[in-house]
# Entry
Amino acid sequence: MAEDLAGLDTFPKLLMHHARARGELPAIREKDLGIWQTWTWKQFADEVRALACGLAAQGFKRDDHLAIIGDNRPRLYSAMCAAQALGGVPVPMYQDAVAAEMAFPIQNAVITHAVVEDQEQVDKLLEILPQCPSLEHIYYDDPRGLRNYAQPQLKAYEALLEIGRQALARDAAFLDTEIAKGSGADAAAMFFTSGTTGVPKGVVLTHHALIDRAAAAARMEGLHDRDVVLAYLPPAWIGQNIFSYAQPFATGYCICCPESAETVMTDMREIGPTYYFAPPRVLEALLTQVSIRMEDAGSLKRWLYRHFMDVASRVGGAILDGKPVTGTDRALYRLGDLLVYGPLRNVLGMSRVRVAYTAGEAIGPDLFKFYRSIGINLKQLYGSTETSVFVCVQPNGQVKSDTVGPAVEGVELKFTPQRELLIRSPGLFKEYYKNPQATAEAKDAEGWFHTGDAGYFDPDGHLKIIDRVKDVGSLSDGTLFAPKYLENKLKFFPYIKEAVTFGDRRDRVCAFINIDMEAVGNWAEKRNLPYSGYTDLASRDEVCDLVRECIEKVNADLAQEPEIANSQVHRFLILHKELDADDGELTRTRKVRRGYIGEKYEPLVDALYAGRDTIHVEAQVKYEDGRTAMISADLKIRDAKTFAPAAAKRAA
# Structure
């Protein structure tokens, strides 16, 4: 990134700079009713100016908090910057959170104004309004279904914009004065952590922290204003926010908002992103779709796919890294690129991807290798909300499946004697909002952030994370037990959607499994196995055998790793329902709340360790429309083959 950003220490200042320097280039696009709509940097800046003046006229002022709730939409991003232009702090919230989950952030941050996407989000806020007396203004983008709503707190986004235009016409200098007052040390945004272990905490990040880390990573990857990014993950997640807000403001590139979650793949093929980010679960889902499509293909296509994927697996990564490969292999790979890899990248919407990242949790080595072998420059990065994401990134040519790379420019790393990773970085958070005790526990007097992650450096100085310090335990024989490491290995298989492992201070490891309904359903249909739904499918003996084969392959791999060879999975059961964030079993970022699950399903855990073959369970499930129902099932508990560490052989 060649641009000099000196003096541009806040996002509103960066926006006004882009409006002057590249005003006619696209800043943000949105697909609406099948057509891509584009806002240039100048149009984006004009909208932010009017919106900021509208918010000011409605009583929003410096240090106030603005709730942002919805999918990725241009107007929601405009609202973020408008709040910052006034010295306020946007607080993005997960659009799929239930109303009760929104009450705490609104109360904690004393939120007075909210900009939301549609009727669904309006209804949630109206439901919790009695608990949130500070919330006096709710502005909605999409008016569908809201015509007869008469609550005095409600106002259309368009009406707010018009109020702002009139205020701007009366005093054109007001906003420029407010923007000039801002500094890099000011709070730029607040992100509430997912709360895997308790009440969510509001992480306050400054303009300097976010801009510095966004710019450092952009310099490393050579990002520029012609890059294109698809914004399809929740804006409330720091990972999406850094790629669809902080980095576009630091570099001037364009972000594109898909029409809906269902059209992401189609929209991605249409816009052809050059810079891409996906957590492992998204990459797993894409590979599952590919696997299902190949099972449905003709025999010639299946043979071509298997043959050339063998070639890609052998030499694709080396070619991508610029390492020497024989002329024969290079020619075979070129042919494979013409017949298989190129069309596959096109189907995935990744034909133009120059840099791709994955983060959020560990990725299975085979999954990682698959994408790199077909020519996608997928790399791992490591970071968190508290560190403004960019802590470690794998440099080109130094990509490994089991590390997250060395520290990014400006970052210092070290470990405690307990192997906990500590970080010192320009991107560190300012504080946990209204929680000085938690802030002091996480960030010490010397400025080191205590991550809670356990790991070590490999011989090349690359960071390797194995699990959370609090989750790393040991079996009764002293064997290291790293549950997340085991769960990620299990989840590589397309048939396993989620896994929860148990074993700390026990004599062996046991697991809960969630099957992937799409992949296993497709597998069952090809074998003419009838089923009526998830619970029925999960109870089939054939499905238990399928899952057992996957577990035994993981066990064979674990037997090759001396430190954890004895932590192979001995027994498992397939849960009667899918783990769900609405039921408290997952966070909104789809991370397993292992402790909560262990308590909620304690009788099932006990049955695994008691040697039982079945256990009856009754549970309440919640549907997307809010209805609840009771389901009952007899869960089958199965043993899995384990392998001796000294003479392990891979399962066939």
